[in-house]
Design a protein that fits this description.
This protein is of the alpha+beta class. About 40% of the residues lie in helices and about 25% in strands. The protein has 5 helices and 7 strands; from the N terminus they run αβααββαββαββ.
Length: about 200
């Protein structure tokens, strides 16, 4: 076998191994989440700091696609909950936004407090969710093809977000924007006295 073919073959094996490992890790996380009876490791979370960390974790992908990032992250907003679950949920929404946003597109991140809730919102200007997929988008293993590729995700990210949000007594909504793209909105009950 030629060196170039062997190199390509090994690269494909490594890529598939990483993909399978990622899927197994996500399945284990989801399974553990679904078996929880209640929240553990509850703390007051600085939501602005958490949102900045989630955005920063995806910075290389955002830069690589030359995506414009529009952040409207309110300060002094706190939420009582499991920090890991909320951060992972936001990171999953951001990952989807990056995957579906075209090169040089825009992703918006909004964090705000309402009278009785804290809301985290991620919007993109991608193709939106087809009508046939709207009822299934939170189903385990359901995934849409990423624009410009034939690739799909594991179909576990939004299921994780739904479970984690429900565990906090919150809601998730995903809707197509009139001008194109999707808005994903996490809403958690405001249980902290911090303003």
């Amino acid at each position: 076998m030629q060196v170039a073919k062997r190199t390509k073959f090994l690269k494909n094996i490594r890529t598939e191994t990483e993909r399978i490992q990622n899927m197994i890790e996500r399945l284990l996380q989801l399974s553990a989440l679904e078996n929880r009876k209640g929240l553990t490791d509850v703390q007051d979370i600085d939501v602005a700091k958490l949102a900045e960390e989630a955005v920063e974790s995806l910075a290389p992908l955002i830069v690589a696609k030359r995506i414009n990032l529009d952040k409207n992250i309110g300060r002094e907003i706190y939420l009582s909950g499991n920090r890991f679950l909320i951060k992972q949920s936001l990171a999953n929404l951001l990952q989807n936004a990056v995957d579906f946003t075209p090169e040089k597109g825009t992703i918006s991140v909004l964090v705000k407090r309402g009278d009785a809730y804290v809301e985290l919102e991620v919007s993109d200007d991608g193709p939106g969710v087809p009508d046939y997929a709207l009822d299934r988008i939170f189903d385990r293993f359901y995934s849409l093809q990423r624009p410009g590729t034939s690739k799909k995700s594991s179909g576990l990210g939004l299921t994780f977000v739904k479970e984690a949000t429900a565990l906090h007594g919150g809601t998730i909504a995903l809707e197509n924007r009139p001008d194109g793209g999707v808005t994903a909105r996490l809403r958690f009950p405001s249980t902290s006295n911090s303003s």
